Amino acid sequence: MTAPRRPEAARRGRDRRARTILPRPGAPALTGDHRPTTAVVGGGIAGLAAATALAERGVRVTLHEREPVLGGRLAGWPTVLADGSTVTMSRGFHAFFRQYYNLRGLLRRTDPGLRRLKGLPDYPLRHSGGLHDSFRHVPRTPPWSALGFVALSPTFRARDLVRMNPAAALPLLDVRVPDVYAHLDRVSAHDFLRSVRFPAAAHHLAFEVFSRSFFADPRALSAAEMVLMFHIYFLGSAEGLLFDVPDEPFPAALWDPLAGYLESHRAELRTGTPVDTVEPARDGGFLVTAAGAERRYDTVVLALDTAGLRSLVARSPRLADAGWRERVAGLRNAPPFLVSRLWLDRPVAADRPGFLGTSGFGPLDNVSVLERWEGEAARWAARSGGSVVELHAYALPERAAREAEQSRLVEQLHRVYPETRAATVVDARHEWRADCPLFPVGGYEDRPAVRTTDPGLVVAGDLVRTDLPVALMERAATSGFLAANALLERWGVTGQTLWTVPDRGRGALLRGLARAGGDRRRQAERAVPATGRFERDDVLES
Q1: N or C: lower Cβ tally within 10 Å for the chain?
Q2: pTM of structure
Q3: Nearest-CA neighbor of 95 among 304, 354, 310?
Q4: Cα–Cα distance between 124 and 118 in angstroms, integer?
């Protein structure tokens, strides 16, 4: 039985200030025998969003995915354990925050009530020094969310608050895109936090969580990206910092149903088919070569990861223009990360949370106990009497010794959950990857936008500039829909309605304070050529 459709406004979430972005008006769909064709290159979130919006409106879509499965960085694949169990391995835990309006809208195509997502009761953080933070009891509506976090957190003590520099923190109060990049893209996340003089424990335990979500060292990450994250999850949105997770592995919960949905709209899904080249055709379309065969399409969506986009554009020397190709060639990947999943012969303690963020435990950034929410892991744990534990390490050294880092992660697990020392590892899987985008200091202007100089060629993915307050998985989904909308406009068809968190500070007083601080900062910056006395950190710390 099909679930009843909910009003569109209700799908945004609980925040009544969420911003609605309407597409250009047009026909509801294309009809007839000569409908346009689109090749979507990449089957991750961005490509699936683009393919969905296009196929729903009558475009003839062919989706090319290099891997044998859909999902991109959220893909899953079967593996057989030493005990004979067939289980699903993936690249690990992902939090589906309630602010992810457009990603959740994509998932509603096959799960209108989002029943395949399960809410975790808390977002706990733990420092090796013994401090714990939690977002469970923090108010969700700004500014009470920030005030509540400070009041409840043991990392903010009275003497620490006195030492902070509130003037340097004013940009957090009124984040606007793309203005935040103009002001902060040339400052590192590390230096911005240092200028605010957050307590050291809060710096490591809470705020580095945001920066390391980009799989990057805070010294290499643009402060604009971290401040935008702070706005999306904390000071700009009333959705809060609690999140949902799929109740089964990614293929079963998310991508297999969506693949069926796309096929019901006559989309062709060509998995296991990497694209070799994309070249402009003489008639204005594109020639796409994949698996040794060349096919013509009217339009193309490039929904690839950073390395994939770089490589395909290098092999396709006539795409867009030379300046665009040069900027794509300069895109960088974030450092490598490691996901270790362990199937243990005995359970972890019953009070261990499903997810725990960590700081000060060497390379270990978080620990997940999968049977707390995932059905497949829970069934294995029930059969074996054990636990399925997953460990993440972000931003590892480029030449890290793999076996040594894997051993270090397990050692840190024993520190965090001492009862695991006595457990035997029934089997383990380790995923080493280095394909996430890096958002370096000063790199915003060189990132590709959705539209290119060729109106038939658009780009999507979490590496893309959207000029909207979105990040991570939500940026991928949003950019995919924006890419589809750009093409649909050409054919006079209305596209996908989008939502974001508010695109500015939530209160007039806070916005006024932020503007005053910005005016003061710009006055200081204008003094630089005249006096030469200010460095960037001096401006931030003044």
Answers
A1: N
A2: 0.91
A3: 354
A4: 17
